[in-house]
C-alpha cells in the first residue's frame, strides 16, 4: 500500500450540513486533492437556496485558467436535499459512502435554549440516524466523524448538552458496527464562521459601535476554519475507534479581540454582563477527561469511557488536567497578529460566505 495516498483518495465522502462555513472549507480542501482526490463528494443538507449558491460558486468560471484550476471538479459534487432528523433521508444519502462527516447542527446557544426539543432532534437524533442507518442496513461506511464543540465539555447549556450526547451516540456506535470507525473532533470558537463573534464585531464597528462584550474576563479558543478541517483529517488518519481529537490552539480574551478589530477607530466597548448559559472560560478537555487524554503532537486524543473500546497500546502519561481557554492567553499584539494572518482585521467583506470558496 502506498502510504503517500491521501485519506480521501477514491472515497465517497458525505458531508451532512455541508453548506455551512465548515462544510464549504472542507469541500474546498477535498477538491484541492491535498488529502487525496475523492471519487464523489455528497453535500447533504436541507436548505435548497444554500445548495444552489454553493453549486453556482463552484461551477462559475471566473478566469480563462478556471478549467485547469477546477479540472471539472464540479462533476465530483453531488447535492442532496434532506435532513439528518429523517432516518430515510440519511439512509439514502450515506448508502454508498466510505466516509461520513457530520457537520449538521443547531449551534446557536440561545436558539437551542428556547427550543431544546429541536436541538435534540438535530444534534442527537440526527447522530443516531447515522449510526442506525449503518447498523441496520450493514452499510460499508469505513469511518464517521462527529463534529463537536468545546461547549460539550462540562456543558451548561442545551447546545453543549446535546453535543455531548452526540459524542456519546457516535462513540457507542462502535460497539454494534465494528466495521465502521466512529470518531469525534471537538474544538472551540471557529474564526469568522457564520453566527460567530467576529462577524458580529465587524458589523457593530461598521455601524459606529458600541462593540458589546459580556465580561472583561471572558476567554475563548481561536480556531481558523482551515485548522478545523486539519483536525478532521488528523482524526481520520490517527484516531482509534471511539476517540475524540482536540486541537492545540491559541486562546485570547474577547476584549482583546474587540480591541484588535476596532484598531484606532473611535468605537466604544460596552460591557453587557454574562448571558444565561454562557461560560467565562471554555474547556476542550475537562479535568475528569484529562485522566484518559493523551498527547498526539498537535492534538490531544480523549480515549472513550467504554472499556470495550480502549486500546492497550502504550502511550505517554495522560494529560491529567483540564485544557481550558484560560490556560495560556495571547497578548493584544499576538491576538492582532493572529487575526491579521487570517485576513480578519480588514472588515466583514473578507469573511463573506463566497470568500470561503475561493
Describe this protein's structure.
The structure is a single chain. The protein is of the alpha/beta class and 358 residues long. The chain has a domain of 245 residues: 3-Layer(aba) Sandwich (Rossmann fold). A nine-stranded mixed beta sheet has the order 3-2-1-4-5-6-9-14-13, sandwiched between helices. A two-stranded parallel sheet has the order 7-11. It has a two-stranded antiparallel sheet with strand order 8-10. The C terminus is likely disordered. The protein starts with 11 loop residues before the first strand and ends in a 17-residue tail after the last helix. It contains twelve helices and 15 strands. β1, α1 and β2 form a beta-alpha-beta unit. It is globular.
- Helices and strands, in order, run as EHEHHEHEHHEHEHEEHEEHEEHEEEH
Question: Please, what is the CATH homologous superfamily of the domain at 12-188 and 223-248 and 283-324?
Answer: NAD(P)-binding Rossmann-like Domain
Portion in beta strands: 15-25%
Question: How many strands appear in the DSSP assignment?
Answer: 15
**End-to-end C-alpha gap:** 33 Å
Uncertain parts: 347-358
Report the CATH C-level class of the domain at 12-188 and 223-248 and 283-324.
Answer: Alpha Beta
| Strand order across the largest sheet | 3-2-1-4-5-6-9-14-13
**What spatial form do the alpha-carbon principal axes imply?**
globular
At CATH level 3, the topology of the domain at 12-188 and 223-248 and 283-324 is Rossmann fold
Amino acid at each position: 500500500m502506498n502510504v503517500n495516498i491521501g485519506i480521501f483518495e477514491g472515497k465517497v465522502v458525505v458531508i451532512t450540513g455541508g453548506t455551512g462555513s465548515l462544510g464549504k472549507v472542507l469541500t474546498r480542501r477535498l477538491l484541492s486533492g491535498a488529502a487525496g482526490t475523492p471519487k464523489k463528494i455528497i453535500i447533504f443538507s436541507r436548505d435548497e437556496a444554500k445548495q444552489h449558491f454553493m453549486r453556482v460558486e463552484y461551477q462559475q468560471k471566473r478566469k480563462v485558467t478556471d478549467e485547469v484550476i477546477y479540472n471539472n471538479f464540479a462533476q465530483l459534487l453531488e447535492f442532496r436535499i434532506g435532513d439528518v432528523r429523517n432516518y430515510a433521508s440519511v439512509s439514502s444519502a450515506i448508502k454508498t459512502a466510505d466516509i461520513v462527516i457530520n457537520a449538521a447542527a443547531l449551534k446557536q446557544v440561545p436558539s437551542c435554549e428556547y427550543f431544546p426539543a429541536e436541538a435534540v432532534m438535530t444534534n442527537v437524533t440526527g447522530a443516531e440516524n447515522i449510526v442506525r442507518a449503518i447498523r441496520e442496513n450493514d452499510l460499508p461506511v469505513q469511518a464517521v466523524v462527529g463534529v463537536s464543540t468545546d461547549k460539550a465539555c462540562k456543558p451548561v447549556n442545551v447546545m453543549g448538552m446535546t453535543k455531548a450526547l452526540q459524542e456519546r451516540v457516535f462513540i457507542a456506535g462502535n460497539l454494534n458496527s465494528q466495521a465502521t470507525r466512529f470518531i469525534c473532533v471537538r474544538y472551540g470558537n471557529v474564526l469568522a464562521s457564520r453566527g460567530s463573534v467576529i462577524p458580529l464585531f465587524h458589523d457593530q464597528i461598521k455601524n459606529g459601535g458600541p462593540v458589546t462584550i459580556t465580561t472583561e474576563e471572558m476567554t475563548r479558543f481561536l480556531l481558523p476554519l482551515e485548522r478545523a478541517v486539519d483536525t478532521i483529517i488528523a482524526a481520520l488518519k490517527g484516531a482509534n475507534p471511539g476517540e475524540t481529537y482536540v486541537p492545540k490552539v491559541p486562546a485570547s480574551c474577547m476584549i482583546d479581540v474587540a480591541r484588535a478589530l476596532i484598531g484606532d477607530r473611535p468605537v466604544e466597548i460596552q460591557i453587557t454582563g454574562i448571558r444565561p448559559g454562557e461560560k467565562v472560560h471554555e474547556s476542550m478537555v475537562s479535568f475528569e477527561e484529562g485522566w484518559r487524554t493523551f498527547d498526539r503532537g498537535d492534538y490531544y486524543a480523549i480515549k472513550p469511557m467504554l472499556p470495550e473500546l480502549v486500546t492497550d497500546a502504550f502511550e505517554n502519561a495522560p494529560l491529567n488536567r483540564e485544557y481550558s481557554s484560560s490556560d495560556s492567553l495571547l497578548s493584544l499584539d499576538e491576538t492582532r497578529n493572529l487575526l491579521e494572518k487570517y485576513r480578519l482585521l480588514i472588515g466583514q467583506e473578507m469573511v463573506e460566505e463566497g470568500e470561503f470558496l475561493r
